[in-house]
Amino acid sequence: MAKTLDTYLTEYLEHLEIEKNRSPKTLENYAFYLGRFLEYLGGKKSPAAITHEEVRKYRLWLNRLIDVHGEPLKKNTQNYHLIALRSFLKYLAKRDINTLVAEKIELMKMPDRDVSFLEGSDLNHILEAPLKEQHESESPNTVLQKYRDKAVLELLFSTGLRVSELATLQKEDINLARDEFSIEGKGGKRRVVFLSEQAKYWIKKYLGLRKDMNPYLFISHDKRKQEDRTKAKGQSQYDHLTPRSVQRLVKKYAKMAGITKPVSPHTLRHSYATDLLQNGADIRSVQAMLGHSSITTTQIYTHITDRELKNIHKKFHGKGRKHD
Hints:
The protein is mainly alpha-helical. The protein has helices at residues 5-18, 24-41, 52-64, 75-94, 120-128, 140-159, 163-167, 197-209, 223-231, 243-256, 265-278, 283-290, 295-298, 306-316; strands at 180-184, 190-194. Helix 2 packs across helix 4 (75-94).
């Protein structure tokens, strides 16, 4: 009996898990995107049912789909669906299964990403915000939170870490005697990130104030939340800041610093990349330090340095020409 698309999808996800060693989150996303396509097309059909015309109709359906928030799907989300489908088709082709050629599916052209970053006084103000105001009457937990927040901000700007990478760091991951440490990023890929003197100093200062045995680098110092977690059944006694907590933390200090535009941990990652490029780093080095698998992703930052190119043009172009 011929296999149906449902069966091939199960085998493909197993292939991603075993041969490709994809993360659980990647498997979850691909199962969702491809499950949506099979639900549209019909999972009991054969791979030959995937035709150019059926994909065209599916793309039209996706573009008109309304999500749970009552909004149409974002263009990049629609592209994620198509990327998953192309990957599935390539897998089928490698198994010599008759279906649509993956290369016939073109992704939707996306506008250039708007990269938001901080520099100059805004950058200095947000980094200084946690310890700008201190009072003798502050509780030990409040003091701990402020030193923690200062260390978080300095580490984000020093390393360009993603918020998910920072949140799960453990104390043993970082050797403060060295200026670098290894981090596991997207897709299980490891890269080396580098610590500034400021980041090392404030992490050491924060850890010096900690009296707990929690192995995580950044933790909550809200006593009530700690007690609630301890009482919760099946909850580990050790917990770390969540990515959402770090996002709130950054937003809080951006507001305190008087920055009116939206600021997130990723803004500090953008600021890190921009700072490197504006100070002479080459794009390939920045790609490696950010952990981008493709140079195309890193190239979103190049337009930021256009003003540097303008200065170079003014300095070096047309020097031999006479002026009227």
